[in-house]
């Protein structure tokens, strides 16, 4: 069956299907029950599955994750919603010292099948603490996997795959893209969860992105095509583990690579990707791997966020610089 779905609706249906398939799946978060969440991702689920499986929690992120650890130990599959990206930090201690480490600490005897859903990124005109990009903190933490979806197809299948996975997964959702639509075949065989994907072919430059920046990268590729340049766009889809084999194959062909993300450039995911591309594809590179990201400042007030967020012009400027070598 093929349906036209927004990312938000795809997540809703994916959560519903996961709950239908496994009675041990439990959703937890602030206002996710009767309200259906701030972005209505869980709309209607408490009504259909009950208050024991869709739990409205107190405003206490550390408590949400601590409770999820206990539930996971008892065989449940908790799915925790962090209302906004900037709200995850009160739970950071639980995530990095308990969720990420219990499986190793127990020598594999205790699994932590916890999914932590986080709406990430800016672009919605929000106030402070509502527009962060915290992926590097979690990607740097051994024991966690980090997924960053960019489209309704990956949202629908990815949330189900993450819930079924035995390890803890930070599941990043591009909040300003929640209303983007695409055709989703709900009866298809999905791509593997931890794999990158070429979403536009090209020969001159390899352009890498994930989450909300994939659309920006595709727009830049189209604008470059109008000027006669051929850009290959790869959606990384997962930032930990990184699936870089398709990236290496592309860079060996194009000789140039640009990485784009909303998070600050310094020590962001782009730095790790640039290092690994350089190590593996050194003799194929015609230019240094370039990065386009947020600035090394706290996320600005909403009136200034368009100056902060990487946009088409900044991406194309990096493409021009790469082509200039």
UniProtKB/TrEMBL annotation:
Q: Which InterPro entries match?
A: THDP-binding (IPR029061), Transketo_C/PFOR_II (IPR009014), Transketolase-like_Pyr-bd (IPR005475), Transketolase_C (IPR033248)
Ranges of residues in domain Transketolase-like pyrimidine-binding:
5-180
The cross-references to Pfam families, in alphabetical order and at most eight, read: Transket_pyr, Transketolase_C
Q: Which Gene3D superfamilies match?
A: 3.40.50.920, 3.40.50.970
**Keywords, sorted A to Z:** Oxidoreductase, Pyruvate, Thiamine pyrophosphate
What are the protein's GO molecular function terms? magnesium ion binding; oxidoreductase activity
Q: Which cofactor does it need?
A: thiamine diphosphate
PANTHER family associated with the record = PYRUVATE DEHYDROGENASE E1 COMPONENT BETA SUBUNIT, PYRUVATE DEHYDROGENASE E1 COMPONENT SUBUNIT BETA
Q: What is this protein called?
A: Pyruvate dehydrogenase E1 component beta subunit
Species per Swiss-Prot/TrEMBL record: Blastococcus haudaquaticus
């Amino acid at each position: 069956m093929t349906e036209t779905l927004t990312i938000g609706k795809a997540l809703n249906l994916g959560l519903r299907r996961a709950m239908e398939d496994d009675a041990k799946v439990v959703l937890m978060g602030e206002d996710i029950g009767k309200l259906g969440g701030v972005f209505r991702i869980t709309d209607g689920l408490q009504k259909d599955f009950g208050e024991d499986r869709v739990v409205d929690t107190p405003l206490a992120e550390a408590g949400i994750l601590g409770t999820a650890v206990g539930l996971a130990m008892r065989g449940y599959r908790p799915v925790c919603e962090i209302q906004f990206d900037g709200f995850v930090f009160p739970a950071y201690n639980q995530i990095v010292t308990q969720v990420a480490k219990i499986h190793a600490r127990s020598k594999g005897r205790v699994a932590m099948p916890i999914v932590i859903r986080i709406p990430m990124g800016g672009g919605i005109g929000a106030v402070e603490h509502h527009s962060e990009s915290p992926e590097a903190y979690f990607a740097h933490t051994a024991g966690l996997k980090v997924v960053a979806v960019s489209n309704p197809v990956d949202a629908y299948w990815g949330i189900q795959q993450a819930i079924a996975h035995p390890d803890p997964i930070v599941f990043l959702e591009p909040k300003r893209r929640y209303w983007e639509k695409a055709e989703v075949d709900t009866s298809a065989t999905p791509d593997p969860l931890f794999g990158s994907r070429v979403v536009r072919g090209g020969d001159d430059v390899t352009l890498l992105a994930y989450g909300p920046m994939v659309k920006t990268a595709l727009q830049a590729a189209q604008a470059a095509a109008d000027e006669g340049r051929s850009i290959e766009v790869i959606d990384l889809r997962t930032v930990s583990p990184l699936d870089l084999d398709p990236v290496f194959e592309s860079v060996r062909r194009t000789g140039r690579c640009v990485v784009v993300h909303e998070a600050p450039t310094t020590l962001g995911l782009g730095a790790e990707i640039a290092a690994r591309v350089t190590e593996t594809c050194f003799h194929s590179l015609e230019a240094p791997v370039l990065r386009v990201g947020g600035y090394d400042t706290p996320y600005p007030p909403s009136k200034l966020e368009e100056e902060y967020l990487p946009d088409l012009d900044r991406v194309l400027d990096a493409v021009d610089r790469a082509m200039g070598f």
